[in-house]
Amino acid sequence: MLCGTCGHALTVRYRGNGGLYPVYLCSGQRRDAKATRDCMSLRCDLLDTAIAAKVLQALKSAELELALATLQELEMRDQAVFRQWQMRLEGAEYEAALAERRYEEVDPSQRLVAETLERRWNEALLSLQELKKQYADFEQKKARVATPEQKAKVLALAENLPRLWNAPTTEARDRKRMLRLLIKDITVEKQRGEYHAVMHIRWQGGACNDVRVDLPRPRAEAIRYPGPIITRVRDLSRTLTDQQIVAQLNRLGELSATGRRHTIHTIKWIRWKYRIVAPTLKRPEEMTVKEVAKRFGVLTGVVYYWAKRGIIASRRLSGGSPLWITIDDVKTKELRDLVSRSRKMQKQPNV
Asked: How far is 233 from 229, CA to CA, in rounded Å?
């Protein structure tokens, strides 16, 4: 396991109350005084589970059959190249034998001709020797031929490995040994501020795969409301009260960030958190309690008394909503006369 930031190997540390869970930690840059914080710290179980799943997926029957088919194709290619090498070697041996025969048949008295034929024979032998050396290198690099018995064992591995991997008797060190047979190294990459990590797996055969692992979010992030819910509350707040918004969201089956049904408290928190203005549902001809009290020079308690007794027309959307009052000209004259005749209703100046 390598760090994608600094390239150092990840180490295992134990964190939590009493060392409850292991984490992969890289403090290479902080140790070298190049940074003030660790490169990354990731829970081991999340990465280990993803790696194990990727390995078991790679060793499924279909994947192994594909690998064997590829191996068979490589064997056929090797056989074709082998035949070409045999033809080249046979040609080089024939040229060397022909040069030797020509040299032996020349008259020794013709020294110039003999020297030329001897030089050609020597060149043919050197060429044959170099070709044999190249063929020996090819023999070492060519793919090995798998027997039918070996292929059957490889296909049986797809059924036996998952059972062996998940067996309670299999120790962690045995799983590590199996992984080392398949995986060369894993580079872990994690950007700050992101809640996922990417593991770049490099297999022993040279192939590479990327595995994305989602990381747990902080509690504040985990219970944050998604954008669609906030947009919906913002749109509904233009025409509906909080109580009506709660009823509509619960009717649609929408749940709060903690997985419960919406309440007045959740809607008010969303409006406060995201600065959603409460709906303005007051009609143009309506007045508030303070506006009525100011117009007639009385206390607000008098206005509530009038509304309770039905002296003035008022309405309230819900129990906690403000009181909105409608007063026409006739009612205005009647209330002024009522206030002028009663000293109790008149607002007393501050002493």
From this structure: 6
Question: What is the DSSP secondary structure assignment for residue 24, as one 8-state letter?
Answer: E
- Asked if 223 contacts 260 with a C-beta cutoff of 8 angstroms, the reply is no
Rounded Cα gap, residues 127 and 122, in angstroms: 9
Length of the chain: 351
Smallest CA-to-CA distance from 68 within 169, 143, 177 is with 143
C-alpha to C-alpha distance for 98 and 303, rounded to whole angstroms: 128
The model's pLDDT over 305-349, given as tens digits with 9 standing for 90+, comes to 888 888 888 888 766 677 888 888 888 888 888 888 877 776 655
pTM (two decimals): 0.46
End-to-end CA distance of the chain, in Å?
A: 81
**Sign, Cα dihedral of 14, 16, 19, 21:** negative
Q: What angle do CA 295, 300, 303 make, to 5 degrees?
A: 75
Q: Give mean pLDDT, residues 237-262.
A: 83
